[in-house]
């Protein structure tokens, strides 16, 4: 039986037309889909917590599908990341349970990604925010896609809750010009280059 108790979901989409330079015709899009759930381990130490990852898998898939659709479809996604924000009665390890359900859900929806899904996690009070790292879906060394998206919500996480997030983007940062490996030069062999 699932231990998942969902309080709310949030979908946030940014359309970025410029960062101080010329306005682009097609905006760079960055989005987050996240859920606020009850932390079933809040307020106590529990030695065996891995089973909860199975309860999180359907949520990960739902969020990944919703986010890819909102950004124009899975074929438009070039960057991704994930994060968890644990309420004060929980512990960092509870947020670590999101690694596999969140990451593998995006891989399933985006089909064939090679790069590791970057992540962040922390414990914070109500209204806390977290920066979710973003890298290219097939090569972590593609510098133009190094990015992040700050997320949070004013009434979460409550002490006995967790915020679980997925983030995707449709391309490089607007006006990227920092050099390094270009997306067009990806070899796609190891998830790095």
From TrEMBL:
Transmembrane segments: none annotated. Residues 184-193 have a biased composition (Basic and acidic residues). Signal peptide: none annotated. Residues 173-193 are annotated as: Disordered. It holds the Pfam family AA_synth. This is Amino acid synthesis. The lineage of its organism: Bacteria, Pseudomonadati, Pseudomonadota, Alphaproteobacteria, Rhodobacterales.
């Amino acid at each position: 039986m699932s231990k998942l108790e969902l309080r709310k979901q949030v979908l946030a989409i940014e359309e970025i037309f410029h960062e101080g330079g010329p306005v682009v015709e097609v905006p760079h899009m960055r989005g987050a889909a996240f859920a606020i759930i009850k932390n079933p381990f809040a307020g106590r130490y529990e030695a065996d917590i891995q089973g909860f990852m199975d309860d999180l898998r359907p949520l990960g898939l739902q969020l990944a599908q919703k986010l890819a659709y909102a950004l124009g479809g899975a074929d438009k996604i070039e960057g991704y990341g994930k994060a968890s924000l644990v309420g004060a009665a929980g512990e960092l390890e509870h947020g670590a349970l999101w690694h596999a359900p969140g990451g593998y859900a995006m891989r399933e929806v985006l089909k064939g990604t090679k790069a590791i899904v970057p992540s962040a996690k922390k414990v914070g009070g109500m209204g806390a925010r977290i920066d979710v790292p973003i890298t290219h879906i097939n090569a972590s060394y593609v510098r133009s896609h190094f990015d992040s998206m700050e997320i949070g919500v004013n009434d979460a996480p409550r002490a006995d809750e967790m915020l679980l997030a997925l983030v995707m983007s449709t391309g490089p940062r607007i006006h990227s010009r920092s050099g390094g490996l270009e997306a067009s030069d990806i070899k796609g062999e190891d998830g790095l280059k």
